[in-house]
Amino acid sequence: xxxxxxxxxxxxxxxxxxxxxxxxxxxxxxxxxxxxxxxxxxxxxxxxxxxxxxxxxxxxxxxxxxxxxxxxxxxxxxxxxxxxxxxxxxxxxxxxxxxxxxxxxxxxxxxxxxxxxxxxxxxxxxxxxxxxxxxxxxxxxxxxxxxxxxxxxxxxxxxxxxxxxxxxxxxxxxxxxxxxxxxxxxxxxxxxxxxxxxxxxxxxxxxxxxxxxxxxxxxxxxxxxxxxxxxxxxxxxxxxxxxxxxxxxxxxxxxxxxxxxxxxxxxxxxxxxxxxxxxxxxxxxxxxxxxxxxxxxxxxxxxxxxxxx
Length: 309
Fold this sequence. Notes:
Helices cover 67% and strands 11% of the residues. By secondary structure, the protein is mainly alpha-helical. It has a three-stranded mixed sheet with strand order 1-2-3, with helices on one face. Helix 2 runs antiparallel to helix 3, helix 2 packs antiparallel against helix 5 and helix 4 packs antiparallel against helix 5. One of its GO terms (cellular component) is membrane.
């Protein structure tokens, strides 16, 4: 399924929501099929690694529903209790995804380590497990590329996180295929070893997503290049002498800005307000800026400079 080639800046909020929802529903269908196939064949073929990968696909399915839930609620407008809107629903969803991945990864490690400690209980697996692992690898890699393309087009960190979750599944499926292949060659312990590697990969990704989301919930600033672009845009405002104390904080995938504007002291209130309004308009022209709070600081210029100005 190919998304229309449309620049991010031309997409309306409704179009972005629909594109993200459509990609998530595609992921739901893929993960339902893979969870059933991996779980069933993993049990029948006696492959712990494939069963672990099925649990990973199941966690993807749960995360897809979390994304759909958060995507619905994050679109709500501002209200009395949430004057800046509900965009942080997406950040909270990313935190939940991280916690889910970490829990799944730790569970995989616990089960696989138990097998390693009792290697006599590890049995050879059936060849059908390898074909399912290879098919899963191809499906997950294709799903990742599709979801990441949509996520970048609509500029959603939550959808990016969900896409990379699919990529982690593709990587884990590769490890599972190698482990099953080694088991089929007679190295039976490689199947639980593959399950351990998958558990470590899933746990690492869960920690990374959770940490990033937690930083955003703690009002992490926007990237340095974004702050520099905001500064340059406002400094081009006619009549603005300078600015200081430019602060930003993340609000979901949007940015809140606070800034002190330096304006000539002997201007009228109306003139100073007009300059501040224009500076704010230039910052708000970015599609990732939710609101800009300005404070006017009067600057008294030397007489010669005031005359030349």
